[in-house]
Amino acid sequence: MGTSTSQFPIGASITLDHLSGNVHPYLAHLRAEEPVSWLPALGGWLVTTRSLAIEVLRDVQKYTVDDPRFSTAQVLGPSMLSTDGEEHLRHRAPFIPPFQQTAVRNDFEDWTTSEAHRMVETLLTGPCAWADLRAGLAGPLAVAVIARALGLLNADPDRILDWYRSIAIGIEGVNAGQIAGEDTRLAVAELRREVDRTVRNSAGSMLAGVAKDGSLSAAELFSNTAVLMFGAIETSEGMTSNALFQLLTNPAQITALTEKRGLVANAVEESLRMEPAATLVDRYATRDVVLDGVAIAAGDLVTVSLAGANRDPSVFTDPDRYDAHRTNAHLQLAFVKGPHVCLGLHLARLQTIAAVNAVLDLMPDVMLDSSQSQEGFESARGLVFRKPQRIPVRWSPN
Ligand code: HEM
Q1: What span, in angstroms and rounded, lies between the C-alpha atoms of 49 and 306?
Q2: Res. 4 pLDDT band, cuts 50 70 90
Q3: What's the CATH number for 5-394?
Q4: Whose CA is nearest to atom 9 of ligand 1?
Q5: Is it the case that residue 2 has pLDDT exceeding 60?
Q6: Is the pTM of this model over 0.90?
Q7: Which atom of ligand 1 is nearest to the CA of 236?
Q8: Residue 103, pLDDT above cutoff 90
Q9: Ligand 1: centre distance to CA 341 (Å)
C-alpha cells in the first residue's frame, strides 16, 4: 500500500471521532479538496463526490465486495452482499420478486400503516406525557416489518432481535480481529434451523418461495435470510429516526406536511439525503486503478461516503438545508446505485412513510421535548450507521 499521507493532508487529519460525530463539515472539506483521499483512520480511501461514488458503486470489475476481509461473510457465509457478477445474481435473483414495489405495496401497505398507528397509540396512552419516537416507534416498527417479511415460523420480533444482537456482536468481534463467540454461533445455528423449518412447513412463506426456485443451497438460503435481517433492522430504525428528527428540528416543514400529505414521501427522500442511515459502504480494488487522477493499488479498501455524495453541491443546491420540497431529493444515494442497490428500499420507504404519517395523524402539535434532554438535541451519530440516540417528543392533548 505505502500511501503517503502527506499527499492527502486533510484525509490524514480526520479521526474516527470526526467521522462518527458531526461529519458533514469534514466531508465538505474533503469533497472540495481531496474527493478521493487516503484516510489512515479507515485504513483505506474515502470517496466523497456523488459522481465518483456512482463510478465506484457501478464498476464491479474494478471495485468488488468479494473479499476475505468482509466480516459479514466470515460469520454468515457468502450471500448477495458479499459476492459479485454471476454469483451475486444467483444469490439475489430469487429474492427480487417479493421485494418489488407492487408486491411490497400489496403485502405491506395496510398492515404497516396500522402497525405504525398501533405503536403511536400505545405511546399516547402510556404513563408518560412524553415519548421517545426512536425506542417506541422507529425501532419496534423495523423489527416487526422484517419479522413479517421473513415469515419465520416460531420467531416473533423479540426472538429476531435477540438473534440480530448476538450475530451483530459476532460481526463486530470479527471486525476487531476476534473469532465469533459462543452466543453468535448459537444464534446462527438457531436461525438456520428456523429457516429450514419454515421452508419445510410453511409453503406460502417468502422463504419457501425462494427455496422452490432451487438456485440456492440451504446454507445460502440461510446466509441471505440473515443478510435481509441485518439489512433491515438497524438501517430502517435509523431511516425512520432520521426522518422524524429532521422534521422535528424543522417545525415549519411539519406544518407544510400536515397541510399536504402528498409531500411526506419527498420529505422522507430529503431526510435520506441529509442523513443516510448507512453512511459508508466498502469495496476492494480488484486491480491497480486510477480514480479521479489518484492511483489506487490492487487490494486497497475503497470506501464510499454516501453522506458525502448526498451533500454534493454540484447536484444539490444549498446542500446542508433540509427542504421537504426539494425537487431532486430522489437523487440521493442512501440505497446506493448499481448491482448492490438495496433490495429492501421499497419496504424501507413504506415503513418510514407510515411512521411519519402515524405521528402526524395522532400526535397533534408534536415537538421535541426539551425537558427530556439535558445536553440539547444531538442529531445523528455513528461511523457507519447513523441516527440520533433518542427522539423525546411531546404533543397537545386531544
Ligand atoms: C426493509 C428494510 C431493508 C431490507 C430488507 C434491506 C435489504 C438489503 C439487502 C438484502 C441488501 C443487499 C443487496 C445486495 O448486495 O445485492 C441491501 C443493501 C443495501 N441497503 Fe438495504 N435493506 C433495508 C433497508 C435499508 C435502509 C433503511 C437503508 C438505508 C437508509 C439501506 C441501505 C442499504 C445499502 C447502502 C445497501 C448497499 C450495501 C453495499 O452496497 O455494500 N437498506 N439491503
Answers
A1: 9
A2: low
A3: 1.10.630.10
A4: 343
A5: no
A6: yes
A7: 27
A8: yes
A9: 7
